[in-house]
């Protein structure tokens, strides 16, 4: 496909696919008080010589506090940023395709460890499209150009209602604290008054995936690594992309992606000072026509009240469901989810190598459960 205007073609295709979904809920709406909602839209697309095909589409900007992990039990999705959800959906898409002998996307591949699957050569180049620059290091320049003051957050403003001393922050830069600090790991969420979360910024998570691939533990156990080749975004300078994803991540084996810019403004739910953020996330696996709405980390309509959610509350992209989908392909000898993850030695080594290179990667609490 001609590279000229490729970003706009991708943006137009994704936005039109999203707009074509006729749903009663899941998209930003106008509230009863007349205030409009906004959200971020992200999509993993396959780029072919003659077409662009969205594979997953997701919306969202929310992150749950670290404390929720203590009772999540594999049922709660803690990071609901659109980029993260689009990647999680892509993992679910891959597991489904591995069960389809006629899949046009994946194929079996015999390696030294036995039979695995791999992304087909004809599956297309994979790109991540986002309507806002991914949070964290990549977006610092974008944010700086859009605020009145670049003064760093005072530490006392962080995490209302929780201990905010340096031992809890652990040297990690929270959200947008310190615009002048570039090339550093940051945590979500971006608001200074939000409860503590150690979930890393989308910039940091995506940077690490240049080394590990975008497959999660379930997918990595049955598939060869799959890598994103492009980030499709607007309003980002090439120098910021270079610093965030290339200069600070000179790790042997890393497959650096490239940036494709777009400039159309057809998305109707962009962030605005006059709008309120949408509280729900839309999940859409396009080729499989699977749609679900996520609210507060679980399926819309279920309740999360500082205790383990009821059975059936977990969404299709929660960790428990990933293990159920994996079980349809192969059995695991692990007794717990944590044992399963730590047992993937090669993948764990890559993650540790990448995290050590990025520095100050404070781990989140374990979200463990029995298998």
Automatic annotation (TrEMBL):
InterPro entries registered for this protein in UniProt = A_deamin, Tad1
Looking at the UniProt entry, the stretches that span the membrane are none
The source's superkingdom equals Eukaryota
Q: Name one Pfam family in it.
A: A_deamin
Q: Which residue ranges does the record assign to the A to I editase domain?
A: 56-233
Q: Which residues form a coiled coil?
A: none
Q: What is this protein called?
A: A to I editase domain-containing protein
Q: To which species is this protein native?
A: Lodderomyces beijingensis
